[in-house]
Amino acid sequence: MLIYQIGLTLLPGVGDILGKKLVAYCGGVEEVFRQKRRVLEKIPGIGEKLINAILTQNVLQRAEEEIEFIEKNNITALFYLDNNYPVRLKNCIDSPIMLYYKGSSNLNASKVVSIVGTRQATQYGREQCEKLVSGLVAYDALVVSGLAYGIDTCSHKAALDNGLNTVAVLGHGLDRVYPYLNKGLAEKIIDHGGLISDFLSKTIPDRENFPKRNRIIAGLADAVVVIEAARSGGALITAEIANSYNRDVFAVPGKLGDHFSEGCNFLIKAHKAALMQSVDDLAYIMGWNLDKKRKAKTQRELFITLTDDEEVIVNFLKEKAQVGIDEMCINSGLTMSKIAKALLNLEFQGLVRALPGKVYKLE
Known about the structure:
Helix content: 40-55%
Mean pLDDT: 89
Structural class: alpha/beta
Strand content: 5-15%
Number of helices: 17
Order of helices and strands: HHHHHHEHEEHEHEHEHEHEHEHHEHHEE
Largest sheet: 9 strands, mixed
Number of domains: 3
CATH topology of the largest domain: Rossmann fold
Strand order of the largest sheet: 1-2-6-5-4-3-7-8-9
CATH class of the largest domain: Alpha Beta
CATH architecture of the largest domain: 3-Layer(aba) Sandwich
């Protein structure tokens, strides 16, 4: 059966939509290759070239080669009618007929967030990305991105650092990694998530492949977050696709006049994305139940040694949900300079969050 499923994607002029129509008209993917010419000629949308390709079945030889590659490299082939095909993606009209997946993560995780952005991420963009992914730990979300430089790489690394599974969607076959410098990262992702593509092996990372890849990034997720993007480019294409799929789209605002903030600010201005200042904004709009949040991992706290001043502040914050810096100074017995230094260190360690108005709370 797999040989016919792959063979369908190799037929000239057959895209994901027409391929599914062929299967529907013929009553199954194997039946597509068993039909007589007179039957094929009655199917709307197919011409003489396609009919000849189906009848000669030359594409099945290439399909056999791909099956050998799949079996040799422990890759899972997912046909769009399979039960384990990603449910969210299956509901998209142009979802890939075939997906090739190498990994261990559940593609139907309860919460999936795709993160996209510029390849030339600034320090601000990386900080916002790390902050978002760190916040997603409480929701045990699967993080999806595209393994490109910049925001994509930051998303995958942040997920791995925080113990979250992450999936990289590739614009080429699973026989290579692009960019090559991310090869080590890709190997780690396989062990804590996976690599996925709708391209056969030997497919090189041509420019036109990446907009096609972006529909998978959008379709796999419940929500798509754009962090730093120019007014045009792959991130905005992904946001447009996500909107067409009725996905929730979020954008992190940036400074006016910054080139790589123009795309995010435009999405917000045009009401094509919700403004996102923290993961709480995403969780609220998505309707994620905070009472059922997974407790953030505390393993890192076991290895953090607090100073006496930091310990005083942490104990003080445990007693109250939110505390202003002036109240801390009055009640802790510490000077303002000592409190400011301790709070800064606690923020860097991810134990304390600063709120507007010089108010602080424990993470």
